[in-house]
Amino acid sequence: MSHVEMPGARVPIRMWTDPGSVEDVALRQLQNVATLPWIKGLAVMPDVHYGKGATVGSVIAMHGAVCPAAVGVDIGCGMSAVRTSLTADDLPGDLSRLRSKIEQAIPVGRGMHDEPVEPGDVHGLPTAGWDDFWARFDGVAESVRFRHERATKQLGTLGGGNHFIEVCLDTTGQVWLMLHSGSRNIGKELADFHIGEAQKLPHNQGLVDRDLAVFVKDTPQMAAYRHDLFWAQEYAKYNRALMMGLLKDVVRREFKKAKPVFEETISCHHNYVAEERYDGLDLLVTRKGAIRAGSGEFGIIPGSMGTGSYIVKGLGNADSFNSASHGAGRRMSRNAAKRRFTERDLAEQTRGVECRKDAGVVDEIPGAYKPIERVIDQQRDLVEVVAKLRQIVCVKG
């Protein structure tokens, strides 16, 4: 489908979904975003749903300003995927050992490594830039610096919620590795600090929603936020790179005889800010629950833990600010999912997937998410599908 335009206070709201299917609270958020004085465009992805401050699944282009709540608290959250030389024939009938080896190698939930993992500890990871990256931690918000040790030990860990590590098969039977994670606790603490700072600034006092408080260019607060934002986005990228390295090491050990080879990793943020140029203007483009889908750029759009995922290639649609959805998108809140579904429902909906099936992950049940096929169908003018994957192992925190 092509997009539908709804009127907004300062810019039209371009939607790649049926506006009637979007919850009222999310529509109200989108209308609020369209009132911001600095806004130059707003694109809404088919996985749109209510979020804190700004809707998940929205792309907000602003001139000379950025809204920290519109980035989300998991700064730099995103996906990585890699195709391997293994095929379904190389896999054992029982995948529980593989899942358990992954869980031993990569801490999940609130877990962290006993000692920091260095890139040199992981097969094939480049070490360039590592020292410079950690040196820049000295410049982050003073109130968060005491978290340095935790931040070093959480690098290369999964976290909880909708984060996952998966082993998947594509339609040809080729094995893929995939994971979804972000900037862990350090990204959240930096985000919370800066959202609080933005809300105190005089220019934000008259906004319709205090969560839409922005930093504006040429101010010390904007400079401090940009430093911490870009550092946290890099942390998230390193986090995924370390985890993918650890995951490959597990696969190398478990499939020694097959001597697995790994193709180049596809990686994309979906909670982040990028400096991009549109219509002759340098804009700060915030993607909250959206990936960049520039022409020919690879992206990853996962479904829920029992429904499969898509590797896509961007079509470079400027109407969406070269963006696409970041996943299926929730159709009900975590609490609503826990009230509605049981462990038996979870077991039924994840049949054939080696994964947790206990009460702790019922809120991640496929039934709590929109159908991924429909979400893909609604953005045929944003991306083309390169591969469809179905998970056979799913690790969650």
Produce the secondary structure layout.
Blueprint: E1 4-6, E2 13-15, H1 24-33, E3 39-49, E4 56-62, E5 65-66, H2 68-71, E6 78-87, H3 96-105, H4 130-135, H5 148-154, E7 164-170, E8 174-181, H6 184-200, E9 215-216, H7 220-254, E10 266-269, E11 271-278, E12 281-288, E13 290-292, E14 298-302, E15 309-314, E16 323-325, H8 334-340, H9 343-349, E17 354-355, H10 372-377, E18 383-396
Parallel strand pairs: 2-3, 17-18
Antiparallel strand pairs: 1-2, 3-4, 4-12, 5-9, 6-8, 6-10, 7-8, 7-18, 11-12, 13-16, 14-15, 15-18
Helix pairs in contact: 3-7, 6-7
Characterization of this structure:
The protein has about 400 residues and is of the alpha+beta class. The protein is about 25% helix and about 25% strand. The protein has ten helices and 18 strands. The protein has helices at about 25-35, 70, 95-105, 130-135, 150-155, 185-200, 220-255, 335-340, 345-350, 370-375; strands at about 5, 15, 40-50, 55-60, 65, 80-85, 165-170, 175-180, 215, 265-270, 270-280, 280-290, 290, 300, 310-315, 325, 355, 385-395. The strands form four sheets. Strands 6, 7, 8, 10, 14, 15, 17 and 18 form an eight-stranded mixed β-sheet that branches. Helix 3 crosses helix 7 and helix 6 (about 185-200) packs antiparallel against helix 7.
H/E series? EEHEEEHEHHHEEHEHEEEEEEEHHEHE
Low-confidence stretches: none
Supply the number of helical segments. Answer: 10
The rounded Rg comes to 20 Å
Number of strands: 18
Broad structural category: alpha+beta
Portion of residues in helices?
A: 25-40%
Query: What is the beta-strand fraction?
Result: 25-35%
The average pLDDT is 95
